[in-house]
Design goal:
Largest sheet: 6 strands, mixed
Shape: globular
Low-confidence stretches: none
Number of helices: 8
Number of strands: 6
Mean pLDDT: 89
CATH architecture: 3-Layer(aba) Sandwich
Distance between the termini: 36 Å
Length: about 200
């Protein structure tokens, strides 16, 4: 895909973010700008973030493929695999506590390729928080949901998307409580760091 792209779109955001969003592939606007989620789907994503008290600058956003597929088609599995090294490097760099998968391709990537779990499709998997042990990464809370573009094409799924974003707020509360418990407890030992 790099032969037909205008610009690569590796991702952007806060490198210390607790929350990482993984979409599917750059679209036309993203290909031109080199930034993820800058078109209409990006505007909806920012609206959804504001609805739970977050700004785009507080999270990190990437896609399972870093170049726009020709004719805006879905990314192929071999293309997702080819970009997997980059996606895993981003996840390891950010060390998110929560990963939000936007759409079927990113859900399948995180659950099947990294988590070794069966992916049954976004419609069946969405609506809850999963605790997954991701290969080479560790334990992460994962929230699968629809891609914002899907809600633009089919407004009937927007309420489900909004409900899933409320799960992000719930996951943030769980993280805050866990951090409080660590702060109240005994200091972390070398063994705790080795387990990470």
């Amino acid at each position: 895909m790099h032969k037909s792209r205008t610009k690569p779109v590796p991702g952007e955001g806060n490198l210390d973010a607790d929350i990482l969003f993984i979409g599917e592939a750059p679209g036309r606007q993203e290909d031109l700008s080199g930034r993820p989620f800058v078109g209409q789907a990006g505007k909806l994503l920012e609206t959804l973030l504001r609805g739970i008290g977050l700004r785009r600058e507080e999270v990190f956003i990437t896609n399972v493929v870093k170049c726009r597929p020709p004719n805006n088609r879905d990314p192929k599995e071999e293309e997702v695999r080819a970009c997997s090294a980059h996606t895993q490097a981003i996840i390891k760099l950010i060390e998110p506590k929560v990963i939000v998968t936007l759409g079927n391709h990113s859900g399948k990537y995180v659950f099947s390729m990294l988590g070794g779990r069966e992916w049954k499709g976004v419609s069946r998997m969405r609506g809850r928080i999963y605790e997954l042990e991701l290969r080479g990464i560790g334990e992460v809370l994962v929230i699968p949901t629809y891609h914002p573009a899907a809600a633009l094409y089919n407004p009937k799924i927007r309420p489900a998307l909004e409900k899933d974003f409320s799960l992000i707020a719930e996951a943030r509360e769980r993280i805050a409580k866990a951090n409080e418990n660590i702060a109240k407890g005994k200091p972390r030992s070398l063994l705790d760091f080795l387990k990470k």
